[in-house]
Amino acid sequence: MEGTNPVNKKLAAALSGGAVLVLALTGCGGDDNNEKLDAWAKQVCDSLQPQAAKIRSANAAIQKETSDNSTPEEVQKADSKAFQDMSDAYRAIGAAVSKAGPPDVENGEKKQTDAVKELNSISASYASLKKQVDGLDTDDQAEFADGLKDIAAELDELSKSGNDALSALEEGEVGEAMSRQESCRTATAPAGATKS
Q: Could you tell me if 86 and 51 are in contact, meaning their C-beta atoms sit under 8 angstroms apart?
C-alpha cells in the first residue's frame, strides 16, 4: 500500500485543480442592465449549478480514496467513476452553453463556440482518463503506481486548460451578468478549503 501513497497524494493534488474551472465563474458584479444578457446568464448559471456540484463531489470522492489507505482496486473504482462523472458534467456544461445560444455581446458567437469546443474537449479528456485508469493492473503495485503517476501528470495539464475554457466567455459584460445570478454564485461557493 505504501508504494501508491505518494502517488495518490500527487493525484489528489492534481485533481483539486480540476474543479477550478467551475469555481472560476465568480465575478465582481456590475450594474449594467442588459435584460437579454441577464436572461442568457441565468439560463447558463441554472444549468451549471448541478454540474458544479457533480464535479465537486467527484473531486471529493477521489480525495477521500487517495487520502485513505485504500487498495489499488478501491482507488481504481473511485477514480473511474469520478472521471466519468467529470466527463459527463463538462459535456453537460458545454451543452448548456450551446443551448443558451450566443451571449448578447460583441463577438458573442465566437465566445460561445470557443467555450463549447473547449468544454467538449475537456469532457473527452476525462473520458480518456477513465479508460486509462480502468486499464491499470491493480495486481501489480509498482505498475499501478506508475500508471497513476502518468494520469496525475495529465490531470495537471487538464486542470490548467480547464481554467481557460470559460475565461474568454466570461470576460467583460458576460462575466458581470453571470456574477449577478444567484445560481452562479451558489455553484461557485467553495466546498471546504479551496484556493481563492
A: no
